[in-house]
Amino acid sequence: xxxxxxxxxxxxxxxxxxxxxxxxxxxxxxxxxxxxxxxxxxxxxxxxxxxxxxxxxxxxxxxxxxxxxxxxxxxxxxxxxxxxxxxxxxxxxxxxxxxxxxxxxxxxxxxxxxxxxxxxxxxxxxxxxxxxxxxxxxxxxxxxxxxxxxxxxxxxxxxxxxxxxxxxxxxxxxxxxxxxxxxxxxxxxxxxxxxxxxxxxxxxxxxxxxxxxxxxxxxxxxxxxxxxxxxxxxxxxxxxxxxxxxxxxxxxxxxxxxxxxxxxxxxxxxxxxxxxxxxxxxxxxxxxxxxxxxxxxxxxxxxxxxxxxxxxxxxxxxxxxxxxxxxxxxxxxxxxxxxxxxxxxxxxxxxxxxxxxxxxxxxxxxxxxxxxxxxxxxxxxxxxxxxxxxxxxxxxxxxxxxxxxxxxxxxxxxxxxxxxxxxxxxxxxxxxxxxxxxxxxxxxxxxxxxxxxxxxxxxxxxxxxxxxxxxxxxxxxxxxxxxxxxxxxxxx
Length: 492
Description:
By secondary structure, the protein is an all-alpha fold. The chain contains 20 helices and two strands. It has a two-stranded antiparallel sheet with strand order 1-2. Strand 1 and strand 2 (317-318) form a beta hairpin. The mean pLDDT is 91.
């Protein structure tokens, strides 16, 4: 093992330790939607065919009773089948695992399938690191920091240790983005083989989860950036697009044809059927009829932020409030760092020492910004129908948020005076608002002051001990482990 590969190797080992803790400690069925995903795989193994979503597959009252009771041992979850409309790739890959444990008790089957999902998490981590190397070619440490941020977010680790297709979708979406960068943004003449591989990966995204469908506009954005950067004739751009689209269509269209036959011509993805069987869920329209838009937006944003970092189980096991306040201060510091960096400096940071023309550096930012925007649009689109303040929906672009966190924190550390000024202004605004309301947020103000002082201490210590740069990531990993060892084991 070389000095360059040591950071990512340590990150991978730390991720596996945390993910295995979640997989083992989390009680059976206490990961969100786990029974429905399990029943999809079970249907494949027993029936040898894909399941069909039917009315009654979302027994909301019975499910609420099971959640309230903590899923007692031996709970019958066979009627919970509301994920049966999902694309099949994850479940087909997981079916041999369940087959191998077919004669074992259900809890052991569940943990075996969770371990399979952990391998998907390893793939997502590898893709995040590779993407970091593409952004910062000569900074393996920064690429490893990006991957570590992806790996150690407690809720993300918990999701990657449950039965679900989210993490495979994340890995495939990241692989499509990485290859789009290499084949289209960085290359003036894309190799046909690379375009074919990109098309295959795109098709696999379409066969994994609808959140991964953002890979389609990402590839389109890559084609437009290729045209902008390298000025090929439009005919060549269209040929490149066709080379990507053909293998993707070959993989995806049989699935769509099956859905058209099963769910009707107006429901090629089974989403209309899903909305019909899930009609008992609280809708945003119902919530707006009871509360003001400002309250709905405020509470929705707050819960989305908390669940992005960690609200475990079925959105029923939060961390302590001071933990969220600390994470809010860290997030605010990173945002301030991005603001302080400014556009030119930010472009240099994202492009790394690999430089290149300014338009190419902008292409990196444009593609990442598009990726993040598409994931936000997906979250908003889902909440236009049902109330789903789940930050995990933003994990479809988790490497984007992690890259922003890394760049923001590095900039804040390198320019602590400007960052402290921003934190001071934020603290003054919060103090004034709290004073007007008669409720000054003392703990939050203290955390802001500690963050300002910490930036100077961090910069001073880093000059003497370079390894200090890893302390924030170690703290995040400690929080990640606490999610499994304390929150999950105590409250579930």
